[in-house]
């Protein structure tokens, strides 16, 4: 009996030690980060010679980036700006890009919405296991009542609704375009309309406009500017590169901003972990590196290995059309923002991000 009591006590001690160590590591990471002040344009910079990076390789990387139609490139180390470059004209075509210039996030905005969903759940406004029809009402699809009732919010977050993606407009949220193909949770498919409907879900759950909810929960607390706008049939976020970097810094700090917990660290960890086994490189509307395989939009084929082999395994990304990238690398305390255009017009231009890391990895090795 004493032996069992000893083993039980030892187990509790080890559990407590591991929990304390994990929390200590999180706090250490957060406390080592710099957070730019709210309501100000000032942002502390870190000279390249203080990073320990290969300056020659960095020069080669930046020279290569000049030929990729990049409009904004921002690299943070420990929250401080190491690289900030702007090229080409603004989105309006009126004048050159600068730190205040607005650009579109495209599908990189999905990770913003995923974060808001986690905050709404924390406020008990919704549960991810809830049926979608609870917030959108019956008949939000053209499925049978039984098929529609099977879809839950978690399926929207993980791109596993089972909505038909064959020969339909994937941006169209009209019920006529939302038909059955597979049981929810049995098929991974990158479906924009499924994501866009989360705007309506959040508005129904919060009783506020999506824009107001975003501004109150994320925008104002971290000093993040920008706006949501209907673009075609999509709901797209627009901001400058620094605002995208602020959001990346919030994620890097596990949901904390300068001592204030904006979103729980548990949810950030969950959002940036494999959310299902159909595509292990996908969390909650967020792309993950370092996994055993990945799938791409519009392709059911499974590719072996990580999305970006040359990048750190713990990197996760918000990615959008034409190379809108927000990359967070916890092991390196890095946040990288890339905005611009690119000849690869696929929904997720993974070749561009691979090319970037083939050239940037030697910089930080």
UniProtKB/TrEMBL annotation:
<protein>
    <submittedName>
        <fullName>Beta-lactamase family protein</fullName>
    </submittedName>
</protein>
<dbReference type="InterPro" id="IPR012338">
    <property type="entry name" value="Beta-lactam/transpept-like"/>
</dbReference>
<dbReference type="InterPro" id="IPR050789">
    <property type="entry name" value="Diverse_Enzym_Activities"/>
</dbReference>
<dbReference type="InterPro" id="IPR001466">
    <property type="entry name" value="Beta-lactam-related"/>
</dbReference>
<feature type="domain" description="Beta-lactamase-related">
    <location>
        <begin position="72"/>
        <end position="339"/>
    </location>
</feature>
<dbReference type="Pfam" id="PF00144">
    <property type="entry name" value="Beta-lactamase"/>
</dbReference>
């Amino acid at each position: 009996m004493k032996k069992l009591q000893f083993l039980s006590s030892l187990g509790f001690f080890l559990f407590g030690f591991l929990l304390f160590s994990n929390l200590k590591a999180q706090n250490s990471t957060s406390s080592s980060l710099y957070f730019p002040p709210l309501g100000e344009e000032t942002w502390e910079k870190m000279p390249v010679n203080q990073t320990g990076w290969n300056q020659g390789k960095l020069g080669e990387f930046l020279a290569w980036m000049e030929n990729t139609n990049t409009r904004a490139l921002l690299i943070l180390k420990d929250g401080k700006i190491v690289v900030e470059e702007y090229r080409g004209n603004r989105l309006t075509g009126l004048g050159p890009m600068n730190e205040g210039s607005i650009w579109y996030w495209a599908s990189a905005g999905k990770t913003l919405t995923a974060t808001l969903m986690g905050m709404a759940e924390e406020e008990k406004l919704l549960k991810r296991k809830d049926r979608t029809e609870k917030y959108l009402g019956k008949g939000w699809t053209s499925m049978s009542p039984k098929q529609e009732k099977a879809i839950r919010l978690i399926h929207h977050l993980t791109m596993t609704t089972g909505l038909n993606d064959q020969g339909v407009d994937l941006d169209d949220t009209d019920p006529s375009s939302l038909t059955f193909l597979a049981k929810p949770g049995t098929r991974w498919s990158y479906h924009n309309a499924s994501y866009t409907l989360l705007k309506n879900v959040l508005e129904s759950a919060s009783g506020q406009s999506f824009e107001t909810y975003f501004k109150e929960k994320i925008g104002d607390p971290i000093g993040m500017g920008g706006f949501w706008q209907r673009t075609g049939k999509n709901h797209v976020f627009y901001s400058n590169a620094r605002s995208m970097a602020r959001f990346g810094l919030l994620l890097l700090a596990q949901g904390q901003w300068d001592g204030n917990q904006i979103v729980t660290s548990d949810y950030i960890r969950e959002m940036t972990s494999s959310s299902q086994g159909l595509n292990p490189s996908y969390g909650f509307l967020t792309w993950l590196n370092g996994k055993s395989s990945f799938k791409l939009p519009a392709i059911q084929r499974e590719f072996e290995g990580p999305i970006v082999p040359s990048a750190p395994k713990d990197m996760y990304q918000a990615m959008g059309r034409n190379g809108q990238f927000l990359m967070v690398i916890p092991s390196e305390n890095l946040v990288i923002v890339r905005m611009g255009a690119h000849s690869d017009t696929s929904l997720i231009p993974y070749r561009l991000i691979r090319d970037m890391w083939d050239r940037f990895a030697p910089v930080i090795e």
